[in-house]
Please model this.
Amino acid sequence: MLTARPLVMRCGAFGDMVLLTALLRQLQARLGPPADLIASGAWSAPLLAGQPGVGEIFVLQSRRSPYWASPSQQHLVRWLKAREAGPTWFCDSGTGRDLLRRGGIPDDFVCEDAALPRLEGEHFVDRWIRFANQNPPAFADILAPAQERIASCAVLHIDPQARVALEPWLARRGIANRELILIQAGNKRTMRGWLRQRATNTKYWPEERWAEVIRGLRAARPEAAILLLGVPREFALNAEIMRRANVPGLHNVAHDLPIGILLPLLERATSLVS
Model:
């Protein structure tokens, strides 16, 4: 009988972790208990805590630092040794795999995403559901059989208290009863270097193009509030786009957008351009 909770390791970006919710829900549908999760990024816990299929969350600060120089990796290994080793789904491309071994998880306890054959044109949600139906070798005859998929998409459930907290946040900006259009212009790659426009940044889109989009939105929706989202380091990018757009009713909220506000804001908005 299986007594250990499943474990999932995925150190992805924000969108990657949203997609992972499909795998986590599928695992719970198969196995019963929620899976503990190893993730990265300080936002991972507020994003995924309390979501269906999610148990305890361990946030790893860095996978690429030498082990001897990383208190976070050492803490993870102690955490793994303290929990009972059980079936594990490793959803990354190799970096961090050694931490599972250090933590006492045998190789045959682990399903590796890299070993799952790729299907041409397969969406990541479909892949994660297929991966959740795989068994680590040591548990091939122990775990429940593959479960029919329970959902066709990735889903985030929003805490009702977060919806309540959104109301005063909107009221402070005078937009509580307005149509909301959201803009996400920045991204991790664009904000990584000093120069936004560089040969290695394939996600860059010129600020003036974003300004054109905003002017078009303002013309089409003259009464809507247009909010430019992001993390604090994207505030300056948003400010430059707003200056170029030169239309009223714009709000740069990149300096004040915790996950608990972002999720109900996305739910409330009529549109998101990213």
Q: What stands out?
A: The two ends are 47 Å apart (CA to CA). The chain has nine helices and nine strands. The chain has a mean pLDDT of 92. The CA atoms of residues 157 and 180 lie 20 Å apart.
